[in-house]
Amino acid sequence: MMIPHRMTRSGRNWRRGIEKGMHMSGHVWRGKKVLVTGGAGFIGSHLVDALVNEGARITVLDNLQAGRWTNIDTSSENVRLVEGDVREAEGVNNIVRETQPEFVFHLAANASVPGSVDDPCYDFESNCGGTFVLLNAIRLAGIRSRTVVASSGAVYGEPEEFPIRENSSLAPISPYGASKLAAEIEARMFSDVYEMQISMARIFNSYGPRMPRFVVFDFLKKLQSGPDHLEILGNGKQVRDLNYVADTVTGLMVLATDGGSGEAYNVASGDSHDVTEIAHMLLDTLGLRDRTRISYTGKSWSGDAQRWEVDIEKIQSLEYTPVVPLKEGLEQVITWYQQTFGNIL
Ligand code: NAD
Fold first, then answer.
1. pTM of the model
2. Which residue has the higher pLDDT, 204 or 23?
3. Residue 85 sits in which domain range?
4. Ligand 1 center from residue 146 Cα (angstroms)
5. Strands (E), the chain
6. CATH number for position 38
7. Domain assignment of residue 9, yes or no
8. Which atom of ligand 1 is nearest to the CA of 201?
């Protein structure tokens, strides 16, 4: 059952980094009908902010499994919230038929790798089944939406050659990576067989305010409960490409307007650091470098890729440029974290 919602977001005064990396294309988005699935989540809510700024008319579909309506500023008349599940074909068919979106961003998914290991059924049904339901709804509605499907760097699994390019081998090592790869295959099929315009965004570690999980958030949580010691999962040598959420959002919007159909693109910063380096940068920013002792568990979690160094040439050819440096992005996250969860020190 789909339940429309109207709520007002609680006050939030951290600086809106989102505006900084915006893909400025007001004439493209103004007045356009846009459907965002998973829009109450971390990346989705920033995408909704950006689309509101650009003057789009947005319908958000989310089952609130991980997202929250309070992530979304509903003061704009241009945002409509619908509580519903992408696994339910009837509801999804209705909402697509009613809204006739010109653009669709499909972000609704289980977005957690450990979550997918714990509950592979939910992961498969939402990520793989939900993608099928949504794309089929667009087909049934007979509309020419431009669609972006959120995939993940997890489709590459544990790559052996670097940097990771879109034509690198695809060998997922988690239920999540497998369900995202299956979603990509569906998207390509709908693009080929039904000539639908669909691009796939292989997103790598997005971080920023409202992030619900991932390495930077985990470190801040641990430091808040005890700033003298920081335990890092694994050996700290895992290499990550952290991309500030405003830049991730820009990537999604660039793909919506300019992405090739049936094409997958890495959406990343192109700048990688190992996890220990990231910890040091956080500690420096917090003034804790001399105080906090770092230790390692030695063993990481199942499905944790060791090295992500990402080539972003393909999306750069669409004039995508990540603009928020890691240091500045981390400062923004720290500010948001302390305003939301209290001071770390
Ligand atoms: P998130 O968990 O904050 O957002 C996902 C949203 O989808 C949530 O609001 C959740 O409630 C909703 N959802 C889950 N199952 C649903 C269902 N069956 N029906 C309707 N809504 C459902 O995660 P996020 O980090 O914002 O990720 C957004 C998208 O980007 C996801 O598809 C994720 O797999 C992908 N992605 C994210 C990252 C990252 O670094 N954050 C990396 C790679 C890929």
1. 0.94
2. 204
3. 3-207+244-271+309-324
4. 20
5. 3-5, 33-37, 57-62, 79-83, 103-106, 146-152, 197-203, 206-207, 229-232, 239-241, 243-244, 263-267, 272-274, 293-296
6. 3.40.50.720
7. yes
8. 44
